[in-house]
Structure formats: structure tokens, C-alpha cells
């Protein structure tokens, strides 16, 4: 049995690498080698015989009844640890000859299990074999290789003239300049230049922003993204890989640790910011264009801004199982990879949020699906804001209240908890909650509506004079409300889930309360009432990191899953260990996102401009014009992009 079983160390993997490299070889008299068999690694899942799991149960209430039916578990029920055995097996492994089949091992395991009164299953047997590639994996590798070549070629075409400029004469440079002017309409060259890693890198790392940008949003994006990664680092861990799992139940009784356990409000911040930006920027454009609105440009811009990176990460998910192996490698990565192989097209159509969590390609892509839904209905609202503000606010109120009612009704009908609770870690319950509440567009619509109303307010009020007392009360109220939303779940995570009525109230109102606090923060900072908080959120160092937020959101779950799958031994869960791993995930996510942005995201932003008729050279590929380029085009939200992002200038050759 695994060491520390009664403390929640549920696995004893052995050494998979050693097993797989075992060879039984006979040297014949003629000198030839003959392999009898090789090592084969077989996993065993051992489960105690428990009563059927109810559709709804709370470990502390239901599992107390087990002592009468299964006296063996009496000593386990002090901290309801036995509840984990409903969804987490004891994992052990055997190293057997490759001549044995998985069915042979299953027959042997079942016979031994019957004697010990436990259920034994053999989920997989694995031996060394050549890597096999599916058709879609080969296509994915081809696509990635193609774009990598484009980056190399585009970078060469961009950098070579800069290097030549260091030694060519002024006369030659002038001639080159004249020649370059004649090439400004070369669409093929413009497309290649848009893939230049050198120029795209300079733009990504620039701390300059365009005039009129809501600068506090940069800091809010980065901090919120860091919070989301922290929560995912803890929640994405495999129970099978965890040591001291039952002792980790005590973390729910840590008041500060609620920040990790209740990360769910963070996404409402992103939804609200999306609403703020789409209203704020669209109203400014309508004013500039005297109420004229081009829906084709509006939707095309959004689609081209989001889709390439979304497709890229979907392809990476399909390829991820090819990058290693381990005792839990396939069971961790294959479900996600197979879902993407079957349903990658749902990401192109942005309908993934309507699928069950286990059927989604990139479950965290639900946010993009919801965001696209909101973006589709947004023109109706901001056009009314521009022409009939009172009607638009009535519509926002109707949509917001409908969202609150829908969440409350669903929570009541399905007896859902207010949020996925730490005292109920059953993955089936989590998947069901996220599939019907967490991932649905109607759940977060209130946050988007409040965001749009906030964007309208900022459009009307560039500055706002608020007296010191009112300002202080506003900040205190916002802080109190948001802290209540985050830390108000303490008793539920530490001890017992709330009653159904309390769960309905929190589920229905918490998103609204949180978003109102965020709305105050944005308004106060953007209108000159933010003080020190505004200075922190508007810190220039946040600007480059903010531009990477979209890709960081997309790639960080892949890094967490890859790290989890790659582990060869169980790890002992401690807050220090999780925090240390979190810092690695955070750093790796930004590094990988920077690389992918150079390859996919930034080039497609420029390609969109080319589709609209502007050459790459007109968009900033000029030596002396590089530092004059507005960087707003690389901000997190596509709503924040101005109509003209790059300044025009005379074309010259070399830098």
C-alpha cells in the first residue's frame, strides 16, 4: 500500500522509466541477440466497496451514515476523508513482462481484490513503442512549422536592411529610400513583414500607450490574470498525484487561503472590462463618425483579433500528448486532446460554452465563447446609448436582472452550491456546476451590462470631482463588498456548505456585487479619484504584460496540465509547494505567450490592417518611425483598439 495512506497519500507509482527499459535478452551461439520480452508498466486502481454515490451529497452529512454499513471506515470519518474514495482510487503499479496482456492483469487483480474486499481495475498497460501520429496532429505540426518559417523569413526581410544601413553610404540609403517608396504597395512583402519577430517584439515591449486609453485597466488585467493562474494552479492538481491529501482539508480553515479557493470572481473583472471597453470605445467612434456604424468592420475586427490565437492553442493541446510520458500522462492530457480533435471547430464558431465541460475543446475557452456572445449583442446597446440613452439603460437593467434570476433559479432547481466548494471536491459535482452555471453566457451577463453602463459613464465624464469624504466612503464600500464576496465563503469552505436558500442568494447576487466594486475602482481611477491605487494600476511596467493577457489566459492551463502530467512521483501538498509551483507557472506562461504572440497574435493584428488596405510599411515598419508607433493595438481587449493604430510616415530603407 502507499506510504501515508491514512494521511491521503493515495499512490505508489514505482519507477515507470526503469520498468519500461527492462529487457530480457538471450545471446545465441551464433552471436545474435534475441529479445524474449520487455518491461510493461500496468497501473492498478484500487477502490473500496462503498454504497452507491448519491446524485447530491455533502461529505459531512452523508458519509456519517457509512459507519453503520462499512465499520472499516469508522476511524476515517473524523475529517470525512473517506469522501475522496468516491472519486479517487488508490493507485499502484506493476511491472510485468510485455507478453502479459492487460486482460491477464485485470483477471489477476480482480481475483486478489475479491479476497481483500476491494475493487481492482487496470486502466492501462504501457510499453515502449514508436510514437504514432494522428492525421490531425500531422496537420497541426505542419501549420505550426509553416508559421515558424514565415516568422524567420519576415524577420530576415525586416532586419537585413537595418544591418545594411550601418555601412551603406548616405547616397545608397537615399536610393534605397526611393526604391522602398515604390515597394510600399507590394502586398506579399507587407504580409511577410507583418511576421517580423524583431519589430513585433519591439512593439510588444514598448510601454507607450495611445491617447485616451484607460490606463488603470492594464494593471487590473495583469493582477487579475495572476490571481486566476494562482487558483488554477491549486485546482488543476490531480488527486492521484497528491500526498497528504486529507491533511490538505485543513487549508479550507485558513482565512487568507480563501483568495485561492474562491478565485471565481476574478473572471467577472474581465467580463466587466470587456463591457467597459466596448461601450467606451464604440461611443467615441460613433461620435467621431457622427453616428455611422460599420457592422462588417466591427465583427471582422473582433473575429480576426481572437481566432488565430484560439486556434493556435487548440492545435497545441492536440500536440501536447506527444511531448512526454509518465504514470498519469495519458489520463491527464488525452481527454483534453481528444476533445480538441473532435470539437476544434466549436472554437472557430465560439459555441463551446454550450457544451458540457468534459466535451469542450479547451474548457477555459468558455470565456471567449461568452465574450463573443456579448460582443454580438453589444451594438444594439451602444447604438441606443448614443441615440436613446434611457432606452439603453432600461435594456441593460432587463438583461442584468434576467441574468440574476436565471442563476438563482438554476441554483435552486439543481441544488447547486453557491460556488464549487472546498468541502465537496467531487469532480462530477464540479463539472456539473461549471457546465450549467460557470460556463454559460447568461451567468455573467450582469457583469457585462454593468461594464457597458460604466463605459457610458466614462464616455460622458472624462474627469469627476468627488469630495474627500464621498471618495473615502466609495472606496471603503467597494473594498467591503468585494472582500465580502471573496471571504464570505470562509465558513462554507472550512466547515459545511450553506443551506439552499443562502446558496441561491450568494450565487445570484455575488457577481453583481463584485462587478459594482470593480466599476467603482475603474471610475475612480479613470476620473482622477484613484490616488495611490491609480498610480499602481497605471504603472508603465504593466503595459507590456497587459498586452500578453489574452495569450496568457489561453496557454496557462496547458502548462499546468503539462506539469501535472509530467510528474513521476506523488507530491506532498503544502501551501509553500503550491506557491512555488505557481510562480513557475506564472513566469512560464508569460514567456511562452510572448513567443506565441510574435508568431501568431501580433502578425494577425497587422494582417487585419493589410486587409483594410494599409501596407505593413505604412503601419510602422520604418527605421526612424519605430518609436512613434502607438501600441494600443496590442492591448488585452480588442475593444480598446482605435481605428488608426499606426502613424503614417515616409518610407525609408534601413534603421
From TrEMBL:
InterPro entries: Acyl_transf_3_dom, Nose-resist-to-fluoxetine_N, O2_lipid_transport_reg. Residues 217-593 form the Acyltransferase domain. Keywords: Membrane, Transmembrane, Transmembrane helix. Residues 627-655 are annotated as: Disordered. The chain crosses the membrane at residues 136-157, 217-239, 259-283, 303-322, 366-386, 393-414, 442-459, 471-492, 512-533, 545-565, 577-600. Pfam families: Acyl_transf_3, NRF. Residues 1-108 form the Nose resistant-to-fluoxetine protein N-terminal domain. GO terms for molecular function: acyltransferase activity, transferring groups other than amino-acyl groups. This is Nose resistant to fluoxetine protein 6. It comes from Rhipicephalus microplus.
Amino acid at each position: 500500500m502507499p506510504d501515508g495512506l491514512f494521511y491521503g497519500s493515495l499512490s505508489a507509482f514505482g519507477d515507470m522509466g526503469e520498468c519500461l527499459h527492462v529487457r530480457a535478452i538471450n545471446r545465441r551461439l551464433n552471436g545474435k541477440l534475441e529479445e524474449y520480452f520487455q518491461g510493461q508498466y500496468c497501473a492498478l486502481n484500487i477502490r473500496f466497496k462503498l454504497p452507491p454515490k448519491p446524485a447530491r451529497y455533502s461529505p459531512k452529512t452523508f458519509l456519517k451514515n457509512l459507519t453503520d454499513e462499512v465499520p472499516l471506515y469508522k476511524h476515517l470519518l473524523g475529517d470525512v476523508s473517506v469522501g475522496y474514495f468516491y472519486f479517487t482510487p488508490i493507485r499502484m503499479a506493476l511491472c510485468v513482462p510485455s507478453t502479459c496482456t492487460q486482460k491477464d492483469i485485470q483477471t489477476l487483480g480482480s481475483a486478489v481484490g475479491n479476497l481483500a474486499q476491494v475493487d481492482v481495475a487496470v486502466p492501462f498497460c504501457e510499453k515502449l513503442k514508436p510514437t504514432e501520429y494522428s492525421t490531425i496532429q500531422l496537420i497541426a505540426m505542419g501549420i505550426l512549422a509553416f508559421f515558424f518559417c514565415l516568422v524567420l523569413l519576415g524577420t530576415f526581410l525586416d532586419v537585413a536592411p537595418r544591418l545594411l544601413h550601418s555601412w551603406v553610404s548616405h547616397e545608397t540609403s537615399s536610393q534605397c529610400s526611393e526604391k522602398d517608396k515604390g515597394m510600399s504597395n507590394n502586398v506579399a512583402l507587407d504580409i511577410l513583414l507583418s511576421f517580423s519577430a524583431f519589430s513585433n517584439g519591439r512593439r510588444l515591449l514598448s510601454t507607450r500607450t495611445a491617447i485616451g486609453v484607460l490606463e488603470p485597466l492594464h494593471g487590473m488585467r495583469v493582477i487579475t490574470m495572476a490571481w486566476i493562474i494562482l487558483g488554477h494552479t491549486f485546482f488543476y492538481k490531480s488527486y492521484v498525484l497528491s500526498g497528504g491529501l486529507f491533511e490538505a482539508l485543513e487549508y479550507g480553515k485558513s482565512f487568507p487561503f480563501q483568495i485561492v479557493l474562491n478565485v471565481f470572481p476574478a473572471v467577472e473583472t474581465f467580463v466587466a472590462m470587456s463591457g467597459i471597453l466596448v461601450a467606451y470605445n464604440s461611443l467615441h467612434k460613433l461620435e467621431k463618425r457622427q453616428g455611422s456604424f460599420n457592422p462588417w468592420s466591427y465583427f471582422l475586427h473582433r473575429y480576426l483579433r481572437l481566432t488565430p490565437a484560439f486556434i493556435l492553442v487548440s492545435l497545441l493541446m492536440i500536440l501536447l500528448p506527444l511531448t512526454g510520458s509518465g504514470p498519469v500522462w495519458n489520463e491527464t492530457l488525452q481527454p483534453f486532446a481528444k476533445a480538441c480533435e473532435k470539437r476544434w471547430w466549436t472554437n472557430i464558431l465560439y459555441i463551446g460554452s454550450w457544451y458540457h465541460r468534459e466535451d469542450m475543446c479547451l474548457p477555459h475557452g468558455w470565456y471567449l465563447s461568452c465574450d463573443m456572445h456579448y460582443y454580438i449583442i453589444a451594438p444594439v446597446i451602444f447604438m441606443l446609448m448614443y441615440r436613446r440613452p434611457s432606452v439603453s439603460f432600461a435594456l441593460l437593467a432587463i438583461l442584468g436582472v434576467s441574468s440574476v434570476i436565471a442563476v438563482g433559479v438554476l441554483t435552486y432547481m439543481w441544488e447547486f452550491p453557491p460556488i464549487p466548494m472546498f468541502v465537496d471536491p467531487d469532480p462530477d459535482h464540479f463539472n456539473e456546476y461549471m457546465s450549467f452555471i460557470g460556463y454559460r453566457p447568461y451567468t455573467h451577463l450582469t457583469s457585462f451590462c454593468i461594464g457597458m453602463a460604466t463605459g457610458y459613464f466614462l464616455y460622458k465624464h472624462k474627469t469627476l470631482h468627488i469630495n474627500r469624504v464621498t471618495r473615502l466612503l466609495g472606496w471603503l464600500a467597494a473594498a467591503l463588498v468585494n472582500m465580502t464576496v471573496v471571504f464570505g465563503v470562509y465558513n462554507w469552505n472550512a466547515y459545511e456548505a450553506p443551506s439552499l436558500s443562502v446558496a441561491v442568494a450568494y450565487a445570484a447576487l455575488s457577481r453583481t456585487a463584485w462587478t459594482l466594486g470593480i466599476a467603482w475602482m475603474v471610475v475612480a481611477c479613470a476620473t482622477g479619484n484613484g490616488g495611490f491605487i491609480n498610480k499602481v494600476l497605471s504603472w508603465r511596467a504593466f503595459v507590456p504584460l497587459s498586452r500578453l493577457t489574452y495569450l496568457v489566459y489561453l496557454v496557462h492551463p496547458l502548462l499546468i496540465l503539462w506539469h501535472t502530467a509530467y510528474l513521476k512521483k506523488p507530491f506532498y501538498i503544502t501551501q509553500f509547494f503550491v506557491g512555488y509551483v505557481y510562480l513557475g507557472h506564472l513566469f512560464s506562461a508569460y514567456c511562452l505567450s510572448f513567443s506565441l504572440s510574435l508568431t501568431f497574435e501580433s502578425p494577425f493584428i497587422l494582417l487585419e490592417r493589410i486587409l483594410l488596405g494599409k501596407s505593413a510599411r505604412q503601419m510602422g515598419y520604418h527605421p526612424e518611425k519605430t518609436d512613434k508607433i502607438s501600441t494600443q493595438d496590442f492591448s488585452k481587449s480588442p475593444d480598446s483598439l482605435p481605428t488608426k493604430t499606426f502613424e503614417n510616415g515616409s518610407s525609408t530603407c534601413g534603421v
